[in-house]
Structures are given as C-alpha cells and as structure tokens.
Amino acid sequence: MAIKDIGSFRNTLTEADAKGWSKKVDSEFTKGFDVEMPGIPGENTTKTFGDFLSESLGKVNGLQQEANVAMEKLASGESQNLHETLLSVEKAEIAFKTMNQIRSKVLDAYREIMKMQI
Amino acid sequence: MSDKTLQALTTALNFREMRQELISSNIANANTPGYKAKKIDFEQALARALDVDNQMQMNVSDEKHHTVGNGGFNNLEPEIYDDPNGVVSENGNTVDVETEMARMNENKIMYDALVQLVNKKMGMLKYAINSER
Amino acid sequence: MDLLSSLRISSSGLAAQRKRMEAHSSNIANAQTTRTAEGGPYRRKEVVFGSEPERENFSEILEGELAENAQTVHATEVVHSDKVVYKHDPSHPDANAEGYVAMPDVNPMVEMANMIEAQRAYESNVSAINVTKQMAAKTLEIGRGN
Fold it and tell me: What is the domain range of residue B42?
C-alpha cells in the first residue's frame, strides 16, 4: 500500500507549479497560490503547494509504514498492544482516504482549469 | 498481493489455527493417563522472517537460502513440543485445564484481531480500486 | 482443515467424559446392589482414557507433525473392579453363614467427586468447541462488508 515513487509525482507537481506560473503572470491575483509559512524572519520560507502536497504524501506513506510495522509486530507476537496497533491502522486508513479525496479534488481543479478557454 | 505485512498476518492466522487444535487436544485429553500437554511456538520463526527492526543479521551460505527479513513465509517451521512447565499428576497427565482455557482465550482474541487487520487491508485495497476518476 | 479437526477432537472429549459420567452414575445407583446377573455384588466401574492421533483419512496421515500431536481421546476400556467389601449385617437376605454381606466397593463421595470432575471436563470441552466455532465464524468475515 505504500506509495513507492513520490519523486515522480513531485516532478509532475513542480512542472505544474503555480509558483512558476505566478512568476510568468506576476500579478497580485496569483500571489495567493504561494503558501507563506511562518518561520525565521528574513528567510525565504515560502513553500509551494506542490511542496506541501508531496510532504503530506510522505507523511501518509510514513503512517502506512508505521501501521505495517505495528501489524507485523502483532502477528509475530512481539507486541501485545492491540489498541495501539488498531489505532495506527485507523490513522493510516484515514490519512490514506483523506489523501485520496484531496487527489480527486486536485484532479477536479486541474480539469476545471483545463476547461477554461484562454 | 505479495505485501509482506499481509503475508505475515495470514501466516499468523494459520499458526493460531494450529494452536487452537492443540489446545482442544489438550483439553480433551485432560484426564488421559500419560498424556503430555503440547504447545506450539511460531512467534520466533515469524519474527525472524519479518525482521521488523532489522535487528537480526545472518550470513547466507547458499544464495537459495532465505536471508533474514526476506519473508520466506512458506517455509516457516513452527515448534511443537511438550510443555515443560506442566505439573505431572499421579497418572502421568500434565494438562492443566485452567491454563489451557486461558491460552485458548488469548489465542481467540489475537485471532479475531488478525482477521480484522486482514479485513482492513483488503478494504483499503478495494477502496483504492473503487475510487477512480 | 485445522478448525474442523479441533471440533472432532473436542467432541471426542465430550463423548469420553459422557462415558465417564455414565460409569460413575451407574456406580452410585448400584452402591447397594448385592445381586447381579453374574452373581455376587455389583462390580464398580471405571473408565480408562486413551488418546490416539487425529486422523480422518489417509491424506492426513501424510501430513506432518501436527497430525501426530493433536490427539483425540477415547474411553478405551471400562474396567470392572474385583474388589468386594464385606459388611456385617446378619439380617440381610444375602448374608452368608457368618452374617457378612458382600457389598460393592463404592464410596459415594468418591463417585460424586468423579462425576463433578467429569462435568467440569465436559464443560471445558464445550468451551473449546464454542471458541473453535467462533473462530471459524470470524474467519468467514474476511472480505465481508468491505
């Protein structure tokens, strides 16, 4: 269940990077696509939506791996922690389903944009 | 479907079924003279095949041999042996029914949990398959 | 299949304990019997259990260790005790010349204790059957309702 290749997805996102687009158009309107993260003042901490997404993907993957490890430990009797195992499985499932929904929304948005007549 | 975790879960299910059979045998033979209570241990073998924390390292002498953590799940050998802690009663029987009942309940709970986990995994797969667009 | 074998093993336990109950209740019922068909007082009955490997058919014999280790139980023998207890009771119709009656060697306390034990063993086998059934039912839940 783990997503093996985040790198390729990340590449796709970088290509369709809104930040790059906003650079081309360079208007007030498009600045909203850049997510400004609070951090050390003076440093460029702007993250793109693409970075955000791929980071979240990594987290979802991490949760899946955690759940897998917990299940394997339960199966081999190494851990007797039933509730923790079930909880981490639930967390991974929720994260996965949420990510799936986000994926659908992103695809919808993409298709919506592609429909636009320039 | 060669998901290591899923294989681990189903292997554990198989072994727990065997355990239930042995426990039933122990309970049925609680009064049989000379009968020794039997146990089955698969946890060690399974943990080795899984090597979750990369704790175990083994040298492989033949490339056909499974290294640790490779998940050679089909060749797992469980250990079936006479319980050394059994208290011997006057007719040579070592079965303690209360212990067997406790073991049976624990086995049942874990079995149920494993079935649920298998179900969850299958469910996630089906979910991913179903959400097209 | 392992769970079905478990059921067979547990039901063999049930049958064996039932025979045991029969033997001991027969003992209690006949605690005072001085006349039997074979002549002489009632002989106390006791059941001897033996186990044998659970084999349904030849293919299972070929299977490995587990088939040898999981054993069904049988009430292999019903043993009749030869012991006879003499009680002094000259008024009894079966008293011999010295006034002693040959009575069965049945101690009701012992028989009751055995019966209680047999009942508890019966119940534990029933528990085992229930758990096995529940495990099978749970297994059928795999894939259901997803």
Answer: 4-130
Q: Is residue A27 part of a domain?
A: yes
Q: Note the pLDDT tens digit of each residue in A8-42.
A: 666 665 566 555 443 444 445 444 455 555 555 55
Substitution target in B114, B119, B122, B124 with the highest count of A β-carbons within 10 Å is B124
Residues of A in contact with B9 (CB under 8 A): 71, 75
ipTM field: 0.79
Token reading at C146: 């997803």
- Is A1 within a domain? no
Q: Do B124 and A1 touch (CB under 8 A)?
A: yes
Q: Under an 8 A CB cutoff, do B33 and C48 touch?
A: yes
- Phi, psi for residue C72 in degrees, rounded to 5: -80, 160
The parent domain of residue A84 ranges over 6-115
Considering only the C-alpha atoms of chain C, give the largest distance between any 2 of them, rounded to a whole number of Å. 84
pTM of the model as a whole? 0.75
- Into how many domains does chain B fold? 1
Q: Among B48, B56, B120, pick the best mutation site for testing chain A contact (most A Cβ within 10 A).
A: B120
Q: Tokens at residue B82, please?
A: 């006479």
